[in-house]
Amino acid sequence: MFEIDTLAYYDSRLFLAQTLSHGHDIGEIVHEKVDSIHQEIAALSHKLITIKAEDFSSRSELRKHIQDTFLLSSLGLEYGSQGDLDKAVRLLNRNEIIRFFQIGNTLIDKLVKHSQDTLKQAVLVSPETLKIPVYNEWEREFIEAIPKHKLVINTPQVVLYQISPPRPITRLIDLTVATQQLDHINYRSSYLHSLPTAKLFAVEYPPNTDGDTAREITTALMVNLLLYREIDFHLDPADLDNFRDIVYDAERGEIQKASRERLLGWVGHYLDLADKPDNVKKYVVAYWRECLRFLENEWQGEQA
């Protein structure tokens, strides 16, 4: 007997577990239905193991495929009901689990493809095939975790500077968070691809601790715009010092408002001329703010 409490104990975050518990509480899901769901999930798990398992003697691998069956079915049910438990109970009583498994599998496959496309396409490539990833090392780890059905962030951010321990993608909100973060990386890629690539690749970018060349490019662009009023990416320590002297208020420990607004105004105007959509413009302005905040934090640290 596959009891309702067993699935809820397995992982109470699963929408499927919550639906079974709710259905039991309101008297709409009987034990016979739970037994039927148990048999359907067992059959689906067996098919998944037959297709995907590499080592049939590995209990951890077999357990993962069984968990994936639960997770995908749960995601599909949550999507079909839009998170409404009463509606989910009705759907569960009227449909076989395989329908929700297929929906969940489609949702995950779409996210995985989005992550794989981002890993390949969010890269600047020179005529000599020199490649500069648009994402930093933290973001690479985030992207590479998705095909494993894992999420390493809790909320989407303008730039990832740290990640959390990997956890399974269990709810629709996890899909939303992952999709938004991938979109942010692709918006950044759209902006960087709009810059003059000949000038961009004429510069060597020294490696930094988090592999964030995109931030180095943007910082160099800001410095050249403010000091020389031109789009360029060459940056030496003296230029950066001069930039700091102009934009940074050491007494207040922050970048001056006028300098910040001047730079943000420039990138907004540039993206208008490049005919970028509003979602890209909104993100890139936020990205420039984040790059300025990074400089601000560095300079504050030097003062401490």
Describe this protein's structure:
Helix content is 67%, strand content 5%. Residues 1-9 have low confidence and may be disordered. The longest helix is centred in the last third of the chain and has 26 residues, at 278-303. The protein is elongated and about 75 Å long. It has a two-stranded antiparallel ribbon. Strands 3-4 form a two-stranded antiparallel ribbon. The chain starts with a helix and ends with a helix. The protein is built from 13 helices and six strands.
Global geometry: elongated
Helix content: 55-70%
Largest sheet: 2 strands, antiparallel
How many distinct beta strands?
Answer: 6
State the end-to-end CA separation: 64 Å
- The helix tally amounts to 13
Which strand-content bin applies to the residues? under 5%
Radius of gyration: 25 Å
Q: Could you give the order of strands across the largest sheet?
A: 1-2
Structural category is mainly alpha
Could you list the spans in which at least 5 consecutive residues all have pLDDT below 50?
A: 1-9
**Helix/strand order, N-terminal first:** HHHHHHEEHEEHHHHEEHH
- Name the average pLDDT: 90
